[in-house]
Amino acid sequence: MLENLLPPLNSHNLPYPDTIHPIVVHFVIAMVLFAIVCDALGFFTKNPRLLEVGWWNIFASTTWIFVAVIFGQIEAGLASPYPAVVSDLNLHTLIGWSLSGILAVITGWRYIIRLRSKDSLPVAYIGLNGFLLALVLFQTYLGDKLVWVYGLHTEAVVEAARGGLL
Amino acid sequence: MILSSFSAPTVVATANGLPYSIPIHPNLVHLTLGLFILAIAFDIVAALYPLEKPIFKFLAIPVLSSNLYDVGWFNMVAAAIVTFFTVAAGFYEIILAEPPMDTVSPWGLGAMDTMVWHGVGGVVLLGLIVGMTIWRGFQRYLWREDRARQVQWSYLLAGLGIFVLMFFHGTLGAHLAADFGVHITADRLLRSGLDPNAQLLNVLIKTLRP
């Protein structure tokens, strides 16, 4: 029934030309990583301007991650994962949804820190940034595997899946 | 017997045509695009700040437009630095690409044409990003140092023009991956008549039980 509501799926098994999730995550990945770099530089050099750059980057990344999760969920639903893919796709989905919450909480805390003392960051926040860095890098690695190892939404894999070869 | 138990992982490890399992170029692309686009976006937000004042006030977010320009500047500098590595990794991985020559992309280009355009476009974009960074630096430190609006409208317009170029350029790169399967393990296994399920699950089992 759902098939009748969607536009016809193309050779990437999508109702639109190319995957959108990997485009949206450009913004999340770049801004989270750059926020962490600016926070660290600002923290150690005591430069409040860099801390501001860190704040605006983490703030913007939080707005974008929700867009990334929505498209990620749509495209995961259309990915028709074959047995070798399932566990990595599940983990990527779980961490993706969790990251939207984690980023929102971190940004909320940062908002309060920024209101109270604009020119410094607590050590605990830098520590949390370290945890965030590890999580985002791991999540990016999982997403990389889905595209570059498993080839989800690529023509060859979609064709093989439709032909019942996977 | 011993040989056969080691052969499967070897096939997969080299199956993407690279000496490592995940291509580097597409990961640096996240940084180039994300940082450049956000740099321009923040400069636009800063330049239009008088219009947005009530929105930020409603959200109770204190804003100094000079801080928004800082984001525009530092993100642009970072984009310029990273992009040298993005282009370098891209050329390395394009040299090692072995795309199928018998198919065309959704834009009707063959693999070789797509790679050439993506390669040329990459160098052009690197030049444009570095040029924009230098232009931005002149505006920030010399030409408009004492002005409330730190960037020229023409700079923002040029940035939007580069977004369009990036869209076409990025779509060519997406074609290389999703249509030609360049450096994608599963695609290359399928094209050589191997089942990625068997191959990739094999690796999983072998890594668990070495």
Provide tags for this entry.
heterodimer, A: 166 residues, mainly alpha, 6 helices, elongated, B: 210 residues, 75% helix, disordered N terminus
List the SSEs and their pairings:
The complex is a heterodimer of chains A (166) and B (210).
Chain A: H1 2-5, H2 21-45, H3 48-77, H4 86-116, H5 123-149, H6 155-162
Helix pairs in contact in A: 2-3, 2-5, 3-4, 4-5
Chain B: H1 2-15, H2 25-47, H3 49-58, H4 65-95, H5 111-143, H6 153-178, H7 185-191, H8 196-208
Helix pairs in contact in B: 1-8, 2-4, 2-6, 4-5, 5-6
Structural overview:
The complex is a heterodimer of chains A (166) and B (210). Chain A is mainly alpha-helical. The model of chain A has no long low-confidence stretch (mean pLDDT 91). The longest helix of chain A is centred in the middle third of the chain and has 31 residues, at 86-116. Helices cover 75% and strands 0% of the residues of chain A. Helix content of chain B is 75%, strand content 0%. At the A-B interface, helix 2, helix 3, helix 4, helix 5 and helix 6 of A face helix 2, helix 4, helix 6, helix 7 and helix 8 of B.
Q: What is the domain tally of chain B?
A: 1
* Total tally of structural domains of chain A: 1
The major beta sheet of chain A can be summarized as: none
Distance between the termini of chain A: 24 Å
The portion of residues assigned to helices of chain A is: over 70%
The tally of helices of chain B reads 8
Total strands of chain B: 0
SSE ordering of chain A: HHHHHH
Question: Beta fraction of the residues of chain B?
Answer: under 5%
Q: What is the rounded distance between the termini of chain B? A: 15 Å
Which chain pair shows the most residues in contact? A-B, 47 and 47 residues
Overall pLDDT of chain B: 87
Q: What does the main sheet of chain B amount to?
A: none
Instruction: Assign the structural class of chain A, choosing from mainly alpha, mainly beta, alpha/beta, alpha+beta, or little secondary structure.
Output: mainly alpha
CA-based gyration radius of chain A: 19 Å
